[in-house]
UniProtKB/TrEMBL annotation:
Coiled-coil region list: none
Pathway connected to this protein: Amine and polyamine biosynthesis; S-adenosylmethioninamine biosynthesis; S-adenosylmethioninamine from S-adenosyl-L-methionine: step 1/1
Keyword 4Fe-4S attributed: no
Organism: Salix purpurea
GO terms of molecular function: adenosylmethionine decarboxylase activity
Name of the featured protein: S-ADENOSYLMETHIONINE DECARBOXYLASE
Length: 253
C-alpha cells in the first residue's frame, strides 16, 4: 500500500460464458481515473499476448532434449521462433528433459516465449510489446506464431494504451478469420485513459476450406445429440443452450 495505495486501480475478468476456463485477467493502475496507465510511451504502447494449448506433436517435439549437444539455439531455429520477429536478438534457454523459454529485443521492442511441450497438457505462450504496428502487422505476427506451434486452441489479447484504440478494434474485426481456426468469441474492454483491450479465442478446424459460421455448424450437432439421447434414454431432445454461441461477457472486480 505504501507504493501503490495512491493509485486508481481497475481489475477485469474477460471471457465467454460457455468457456469457463478461458478467461483473461486484467489489472490497470493509473494516477487518477482519467489518466493513462503507467507506461512510458502512452501513444504507441501495444502489447500482444497469445496462449496456446494442444500443440502439434511434431512441433512440440522440437522442445525435447534429443542429446547433450541439442541446444536452445537449435530449438529456436528448428521451431521457426527466430522468424517471428526476424530482427530480434534472442537469448534462449532449454530445459532438461524438455521445455524452452526465450527473450528477444530490438530497440524498444521486446518479445518472450515459454513452452511446455508434454503431450496431454502442452502449452506455449508468446508476448510482444514496444513494436511498431505500422511495420509489424498483427495478423502476420499471429500467423507466424501459430506456424511455430500449431495449437488446437489459442487466445489472443491485444492491449492498446492511448488514443481510441481504433487500430486494435480494426485488427480484431479484420483478423478474426485465421486460416485453419474458428473464432469462438471477441470481447472488447475499455480501459482508463482511452485505451482498450480486445480478447479473442479460437479453436482448430481440420479443414479450413469447409468452415461454416459457428451457428450453422453447431445447430445440427445439438439435433444429433438430442436424437441420440431420445433413442438411448427415451428422453426428449431438450437441453439448455441450443447450438447458439452465447454473447461475450465482461465481469469487473
Amino acid at each position: 500500500m505504501g507504493f501503490f495505495g495512491s493509485l486508481n486501480s481497475n481489475a477485469y475478468v474477460i471471457g465467454h460464458p460457455t468457456s469457463a476456463n478461458r478467461n483473461w485477467h486484467i489489472y490497470v493502475a493509473s494516477k487518477d481515473s482519467k489518466s493513462l496507465p503507467l507506461c512510458k510511451d502512452q501513444t504507441s504502447a501495444v502489447t500482444l499476448e497469445m496462449c496456446m494449448t494442444g500443440l502439434d506433436k511434431m512441433k512440440a517435439g522440437v522442445f525435447y532434449k534429443k542429446s547433450a549437444d541439442y541446444s536452445a539455439a537449435e530449438m529456436t531455429k528448428m521451431s521457426g521462433i527466430n522468424e517471428i520477429m526476424p530482427n530480434h536478438v534472442i537469448c534462449d534457454f532449454d530445459f532438461d528433459p524438455c521445455g524452452y523459454s526465450m527473450n528477444g529485443i530490438d530497440g524498444t521492442a521486446l518479445s518472450t516465449v515459454h513452452v511446455t511441450p508434454e503431450d496431454g497438457f502442452s502449452y506455449a505462450s508468446y508476448e510482444a510489446m514496444g513494436f511498431d504496428c505500422g511495420e509489424v502487422k498483427l495478423k502476420g505476427l499471429v500467423q507466424r506464431v501459430l506456424k511455430c506451434f500449431g495449437p488446437r486452441d489459442f487466445s489472443v489479447a491485444v492491449t492498446c494504451h492511448g488514443g481510441s484504440g481504433v487500430g486494435v478494434q480494426w485488427w480484431a474485426t479484420e483478423c478474426a478469420d485465421v486460416e485453419g481456426y474458428m473464432c469462438d468469441s471477441v470481447v472488447r474492454q475499455e480501459l482508463p485513459g482511452g485505451g482498450c483491450l480486445v480478447y479473442i479465442t479460437f479453436h482448430e478446424v481440420k479443414e479450413a476450406k469447409e468452415r461454416t459460421p459457428a451457428k450453422m455448424m453447431n445447430m445440427p450437432c445439438w439435433k444429433d445429440v438430442a436424437e441420440e439421447e431420445e433413442m438411448v434414454l427415451g428422453l426428449g431432445g431438450g437441453g439448455a443452450g441450443g447450438g447458439m454461441m452465447g454473447r461475450p461477457y465482461i465481469s469487473s472486480l
